[in-house]
Specification:
about 40% helix, about 15% strand, about 525 residues, alpha+beta, five-stranded antiparallel beta sheet
Amino acid sequence: MRKILLIVFIPIMVMAQYEDSGIRGKYFSKKTLTESVIPSFETSKDKLPSPILENNPEYIELYWKTWQLAFDHYKNPPTGSPFVSAYIDEAFAPNIFQWDTFFMIMFARYADHIFPAIQSLDNFYCRQYENGYICREIVEATGEDFVFEGREHTVNPPLFSWAEMENFKITGDKSRFKSVLSVLEKFAEWLEIYRKKENTKHNLYWQTGLGSGMDNTPRGGSGWVDMSAQMVMMYNDMSEMCNQILLDENLELDLKLELSNKSKLFKDKANQISVLINKFMWNEEDGLYYDVDDEGNQIKCKTVGCFWPMLAGVSDLHQSEKLLNNLKDPHTFWRKIPFPSLAADQKNYKADGEYWLGSVWAPTNVMIIKGLDKFGVGNDMAYKFNEFATLATEEYLNGIYEVYKKTGTIWENYSPEAFARGSWSRPDFVGWTGCGPIELLIENIIGLRPDGVNSLLTWHLTRIDKHGIENLKFGNVTVSLSAEKREKVTSPITIKVICDNDFKLNVEHGNNNYKVFKLTKGEHTLIID
């Protein structure tokens, strides 16, 4: 009798996770398509940010090639599709992918005024199940879920909120938050039920290789570092969304109280998960976070997944310094092109990559470098994190450029051991590989961190050649600025600025040296001794 019950019960539980009531997009307000005029690169180039790098013309060449490829990936939904927005896609399959879309938005947000790539997420929101589930891959023509090798693999990293928040930081536009918060809440509810295994000691979140985006990664366990850290990010982001909505003075009192309570609940939940991650997953001796089994025992597999807690704000300064030391280690993660998806000292490591057995990937490189950036301010070791983030970006871009010179294009992933594409890698991949030549070039090579919410531009200024950018738009400001060439890093800095609106420029130079300028519309020449 027990065997019969077991055979019947498991399929019912599995089916309940993915039960489609026929009601899709219940929690998202946009229901119908408004077609967009799809811009071309040729007519848009003069509206894009234009970097200035006197000593690195190869990066400029790569930057424009990347944008050229990116514009080929803007599209309207096909006729008959239930999608509600134009979108950016990776274009190697007739489906949209969550994991890819999140990171395409990371660079495409610098062209939000030309094509608002953030609306690409609308097509996932409008296909959300009534129970909160959102499939990682959806067919463009029909809006149906695309399932590969089983439903358990169809949940991608829950990074919708991160993409929304990062786009908000550039545009300063919080208008989407009211329409997406309910979607994210319901998705979080689903994840709490179906991505935490019952009766584990750790009470953390599980994934699969395909689900995590790291397809053939040699990992296991019922608590995954990346998934658990991403849940922290999701709850923190939802808390901040509530806070931003609360700034609307016209909100009714009942809604204010509701949002205030939700903000606290989300923040508390993020903190609770963070405590569990540090309790069960942190290994002080190795200086890494590891996946865990049901009993909370660590499964010591060194992958790029170990570093998500830095971006999520789970690790403290001490832990982050140890993570930094691992990234610098030439026996593990510091290879010819950083950072391999599997550490070089692991038995399954492949020098040519073999997808997630060593290849260098844009999404995880962005995660690592943006994690380093979090610790590049406000502490005595900030310069260590900043210097290494810049160095890692340079080596990554050098690798992409050398392969571009040989092949004439940009690839899905790269070999960690040679200037070569990774094995199992697609060409013309912009796609998430656009993050390096665009996002990381602006933020970590030139050193500009725009904040459209507060009309603030922070410049981590370390180079001595003439460098800067033209036509950088953030919030309601468009600015062109450049630092003149100087003899050495201790020489005075001359900065020329042209802006169409008032903003604050925070120049960080040397070790924790800051200078803030309140600039009005017009032209300015600034000198820092």
